[in-house]
Amino acid sequence: MKVAFLGLGAIGAPMASHLTTDPFTLTVWNRTREKAVAFAGEHKVVAAESAPEAVTDADFVITCLPSSREVSQLLSEIEESIPSGAMLIDCTSGDPATSRDIAARLEKRDVAFIDAPVSGGVKGAVAGTLTVMCGGKKQNVQRAIPVLQTFGKKIVRCGDVGAGDAVKAMNQALLAIHIWSAGEALAALAKLGVESSVALDVINGSSGRSNSSENLFPERVLGRKYPRTFKLALLDKDVGIAKQIVDGENLESPFIELASRLFSEAHGELGDEADHVEAVRVIEKRAEVRIS
Ligand SMILES: NC(=O)c1ccc[n+]([C@@H]2O[C@H](COP(=O)([O-])OP(=O)(O)OC[C@H]3O[C@@H](n4cnc5c(N)ncnc54)[C@H](OP(=O)(O)O)[C@@H]3O)[C@@H](O)[C@H]2O)c1
Known about the structure:
Elements: E1 2-6, H1 12-16, E2 25-29, H2 33-43, E3 46-47, H3 51-55, E4 60-63, H4 68-78, E5 87-90, H5 96-107, E6 112-115, E7 118-119, H6 121-127, E8 130-135, H7 138-151, E9 152-159, H8 163-191, H9 196-203, H10 211-222, H11 232-248, H12 254-270, H13 279-287
Parallel strand pairs: 1-2, 1-4, 2-3, 4-5, 5-6, 8-9
Antiparallel strand pairs: 7-8
The structure holds NADP nicotinamide-adenine-dinucleotide phosphate.
């Protein structure tokens, strides 16, 4: 099975590393070519000179780029080179409307498409235990399973094209709400003189706990270590997609709207390279208190 993997970023590279052995023949491409060359050297696979060259004889093309915008732009370069009968699996956390446009574009050339964003972070990608949320025709999702199983543990078809993106966007909205609300709670408790480690210990044994309070806060906020495995800029983009979805449905969704505004502000304040959990630094600054 010939696979072309386009986009060796923080999560794309460890995902691609599971496709380097039999029965897969992997070709990689990355915008910054040095990363593709380093990956190819480490894993003994081919780094294509160009994106069209990478996809030219692929059975499966996988994209893992920041957003659907970059996928759509790259598609304009590679569309003519993807063999008819092949499939594009887009693992980008994308937006449903653009994914539907991409699927329609590709269908004209007899290329199948599924959106297949992932969750589980860089650790999950390295371990091959990601959750993969798929949108597409049943037979297309079924066909992609052998590829998705290399890096995914839980693989779920959520509905037609765009459904995977939609579920991912809502998951990210929940993540953003959990991070911000836990940050506010700990900032308030710190103001009252309660140590954040004590507060977190109690919350994590109580009903207010979340993945953020159990894993992200002890490691990143209390540890003052922000490893930048997942950029705040990307979470801002994701919550923006969730907001677009609720706006498109004319739904009153104050939590999602607020999360979108707050993460956009935090992104503006902390810049493009900040880690997603660093949003808590904005809460600390506004509350004039340190959570530690
Ligand atoms: N990191 C995570 O924990 C995580 C978890 C779940 C989902 N995701 C999602 O997975 C996707 C990738 O995230 P990431 O963390 O790997 O991002 P990243 O580290 O910023 O990597 C982005 C990748 O996209 C490439 N790229 C950027 N702009 C491009 C363009 N205009 N044309 C072609 N390639 C372009 C980059 O190439 P260069 O090397 O040249 O910059 C890089 O390979 C995003 O949709 C993100 O939301 C990430």
